[in-house]
Amino acid sequence: MSAPLVIEKDRSLVTRLSTVFARNPVLGPGLTLLVAVIVFSAATTTFFSADNFSLIIQQSLVIGTLALGQTLIILTAGIDLANAAIMVFGTLLITKLATGGWPSAGALVAGMLATMLVGLLSGALVTRLRLPPFIVTLGMLAVMTAVANIYSEGTSWPVPDGLLQVMGTTRYLFGQIPVTFGMLFAVVLYLVVGIVLTRTAWGRHVYAVGNDAEAARLTGIRVGRVLVSVYALAGLIYGCAAWMALGRTPSADPNAYQTGNLDAITAVVIGGTSLFGGRGGVAGTAIGALIVAVLRSGLTQMGIDSNYQNLATGALVIAAVAVDQATRRRAR
């Protein structure tokens, strides 16, 4: 076989593989997750077990829920650098209200409404003042970090028992596999958001705005209203993440989840959602959140320092964005 013919066949194979991966955006993240599980199972004696997999899923819940809200915003070609800070403020508000005499249910609702209002404010600043989402949410990150420290007086607050910690309640599937209420709640959240994104006019508008906001406006879509609703819904989801966080720790801490923003964005991007908007979905984000949790669990069990874990996470983001850009160039 001549050399030019071999090269042509190689190019054809690469093109077919690129097409398969482009048509199945969950395929790449799914294979990445599988490879990570195989590598860490081979590298350690403690990774491959039902208890460890259950723990990994529990550890991915808060970041996975933050990433769910982040997915909505990134689908519109935006980004939210303040999502973890908003969630931490939510945990503190809920906890302080409950310890101050509010019924737990009332404190929970107030906390979720507060995080939704913060999201609504970010959306309003993006649309009304026409400010870049990066700038708005970077400013909001500083504001919410300061507000959380001032409101908490710089200290952690114990979470009352009962409703606020119910997400950490564990039951055993088939009598052996630990399953928490937080896992079930996360599954419901992902299903609901996934259905809304794929089966409703609002979901189609979100993708249209992310693909080309001006084209969407010319077709009659009220772009500003869609964007504000996306940020508000994302804020409400951050409130749900706050509830899950309260179920995992005995106290609400203003210094918690300092890498939450990075982990949530990483989960979204390596899950196949484009940072340039208009492409992706919640299934990829769920896998992306698991990849982040598997990476941190596996590296921890291998004795790798947390600084190197952050380094690996950052490298993953850069690699995922590079692949996304290459895919877009090939699609043109």
From TrEMBL:
CDD domains: TM_PBP1_transp_AraH_like
InterPro entries referenced in this protein's UniProt entry, alphabetically: ABC_transp_permease
Transmembrane segments: 26-49, 61-94, 106-127, 134-152, 172-197, 226-245, 265-295
Recorded GO MF terms: transmembrane transporter activity
Compartments it resides in: Cell membrane
Signal peptide: none
Protein keywords: Cell inner membrane, Cell membrane, Membrane, Transmembrane, Transmembrane helix, Transport
Top-level lineage group: Bacteria
One GO term describing the cellular component: plasma membrane
Membrane-topology descriptor: Multi-pass membrane protein
Any Pfam family matching the protein: BPD_transp_2
Entry annotated with the keyword Cell inner membrane: yes
Protein name from the UniProt record: Fructose transport system permease protein
